Known about the structure:
Layout: H1 2-29, H2 81-84, H3 96-121, H4 133-137
Amino acid sequence: MQSTVLAARHAAGRRVAALRSTAVRSIASSSTPVPLVKEEEDPQLAGYPVLPWVSKQTRPALGWEDWQMRRNFGETLHEKEEILSMWGPDAPNIPPPIALRWFSIAVLSFVTFGVATKYLLVPDRPAVAREYPFSGLVTELGGLEENKARVEEVDVDAE
């Protein structure tokens, strides 16, 4: 009984492994999804195929003839391959609108914490601020015109 169960498990494991390898291979060899918007053909391409704008970093890691570049030999390259290749700019893991929403929530929470700390948690001053007569002693100290810095003049004749 145990030998038949073990043999069945072993056979099932081989079938699952075979299915996984063919699934990875079919994903790897299938074409990337076609965008819904039809792009206009560039007249300078002279019949070169218009491929979808999809980074190679979004492809699965296994199932390629060239693992480092995640492509099969003889595969048609995109006209902007230097941007869409594995060495191009990193493809975002999170869609940009969601990342912007999370960043906005984080900034808003920090600002809310700062405002709450400043206005709700800081106690009022225990004493009254000092007040001076005569417009805060402006007239007693000689006025605004008297307290300005002197303008320095360069004597041209002395040189």
